[in-house]
Specification:
2 copies of one chain form a homodimer. By secondary structure, chain A is of the alpha+beta class. Chain A has a 4-stranded mixed beta sheet with strand order 1-2-4-3. The first copy, chain A, is built from 2 helices and 4 strands.
């Protein structure tokens, strides 16, 4: 028998928001206590949408937003030049 | 003599991020203790970028992120139909 993953991290990218909503719901249904949504740059809005849809519509009264971190990530672009990009980590937790 | 505004709210929309960075710096320089960045939908990423640029680059060790709220806003679209949109409120505070 496998032990369920207590904590799952989902990288939010360019797919439609619903993909990340489904992945989050599936993680909680599989036994996760925490799901961490991570996103950078333009995908940040999608991570926020995913979090509020989970909390307010899909798992109301079952999941809360436990923590939100805003970060600056260093990204190496074309030509090896480093640039900064904003990033977010949203911790969703089963209540 | 005018009393400086203790708290300023900046609505982050479709302008370049630097516009909101400048507006935030100017508010703090004008005496604000708190600047609240509000954004909806796609502009959320810009609000997050503004916040981390202020904290990590423009006013390091002077401003901290005191609170972040994620919300669902109701928006009335074309034809009077209501739809939900994710929103963020980031509270920047002088340390």
């Amino acid at each position: 028998m496998s032990t369920p993953q207590q904590e799952t991290t989902i990288l939010v990218g360019k797919k439609p928001t619903t993909s990340y909503v489904i992945a989050t719901v599936m993680s909680f249904n599989a036994g996760a206590k925490k799901v961490i949504l991570k996103a950078r740059g333009g995908a940040i809005a999608r991570a926020v949408s995913t979090a509020v849809m989970i909390r307010d519509r899909f798992l109301p009264n079952q999941v809360r937003i436990a923590d939100i971190k805003l970060l600056t990530d260093k990204v190496t672009g074309q030509g090896g030049k480093e640039r900064s990009v904003a990033a977010i980590e949203i911790v969703l937790e089963r209540v």
